[in-house]
Design brief:
By secondary structure, this protein is an alpha/beta fold. The chain has two domains: 169 residues, 3-Layer(aba) Sandwich (Rossmann fold), CATH 3.40.50.150; 84 residues, no CATH class. It is built from nine helices and eight strands. Strands 3-2-1-4-5-6-7-8 form an eight-stranded mixed beta sheet, with helices on both faces. β1, α3 and β2 form a beta-alpha-beta unit. α1 runs parallel beside α3 and α7 packs across α8. The protein is globular.
Amino acid sequence: MVERSRSGKKPVGAVTRGTTNPNRLRRQDRWIAHTLARPLRLAAEPPVAVDLGYGAAPWTAVELYGRLARVRADVRVVGIEIEPDRVALAQRWARPPGLSFRRGGFEVPLDAGARPLLIRAANVLRQYDEEQVAAAWSLLCSRLAPGGLLVEGTCDEIGRRQVWVALGPEGPRTLTFAARLAGLERPSELAERLPKALIHRNVPGEPVHAFLRDFDRAWAAAAPYADFGVRQRWIATARALAADWPLTDGQSRWRLGELTLRWDAVAPRG
């Protein structure tokens, strides 16, 4: 069970498998840099971002730092891992003060008074039980700075298919699907990458199941657009979905193989 550490010293959580590859989280990085661009630029102090559970190698933290630094040059990215050997290995990639690594878990240990504008936890909760997700979300969101964002979700081994939920201090806000469109036969193939809170809810009677059903139907109806490229087919699919589902993005994001909708439209029942 996910709980706060009583001592405040022992990391909260369990060691992940650690699977990682360069550019695995590029799609998430791109979305984060776009979504948080304004808060990053307006932050009075150098903003802090956390890559939680970066795995056996620190590629995702290194890449997140590079992409956020293009938006705000003095951003601070902290890679946090519960496994000490992984933290020790990562030190060779540290670039103080911009990029650093430390041991920790869901308690998100940072310097005194520091509150992150971003916590990204990719492929971390996948190994936990669904019943543990709410407590993990609550603990992580409690560490956010005002206006901060928690991004939690999963992806395949090389990042071609990803789904993530974005949460603010008040709770979940949106769900995003992102894919390399070449080779995608139907959008529901992304179901295997749903975050832990939803992956067992893809069954009749649940909103996420209804959404994926409509996603596939809109994709099939947009088949004629494939003559103009798979990107145009995805855009046409999103336009059709927008008639019945509360999408929060538009064509500029759809062109990238993304689609985001409000969380309350797909939240689990019961």
